[in-house]
Design brief:
Length: about 140
């Protein structure tokens, strides 16, 4: 697993990506906490394991990005979960750039509802036919 830390910056529409000042964040540092847009902060640094697709909070590596349910559908919420051997926790951030998609279900990506780019906007999974799914990985110095 890479020990590099990344901000996962939200860039909005895949057809016209641009800086928004927001990143992939969480409502709290707990299993079950919703994943949402947040202003950049050290609490929202992530590590990316290219071997198995795990995206974990850098300062809490047992808490990982996950989606609810057996398989994603449009509007499936994203949340933190305890690290487990689950397809819900495996992501692909390189093959479908600028999207971050489920490794098992690559037609579903991390999406910002209705492209409403506001602080604390809960994020969900949505079919890749939609466009508010542009993300950028930015390596940060470890704190």
């Amino acid at each position: 697993m890479s020990t590099d830390h990344f901000l996962i910056e939200f860039l909005g529409d895949v057809r016209n990506p641009r800086a928004t000042g927001f990143c992939l964040g969480v409502e709290s540092i707990d299993a079950g906490a919703r994943v949402m847009l947040r202003p950049f902060a050290v609490d929202y640094e992530w590590t990316l394991d290219t071997a198995n697709g795990i995206v974990a909070l850098a300062h809490h590596p047992d808490l990982v990005l996950s989606f609810a349910g057996d398989k994603p559908e449009n509007e499936t919420p994203l949340a933190l979960a305890m690290l487990a051997d689950s397809d819900n926790q495996r992501w692909n951030w390189y093959a479908y750039t600028p999207r971050i998609v489920s490794s098992r279900y690559p037609t579903f990506a991390i999406d910002c509802p209705h492209c409403e780019i506001i602080a604390n906007q809960p994020l969900w999974m949505y079919n890749t036919a939609f466009d508010c799914q542009a993300w950028k990985l930015t390596r940060v110095d470890k704190v």
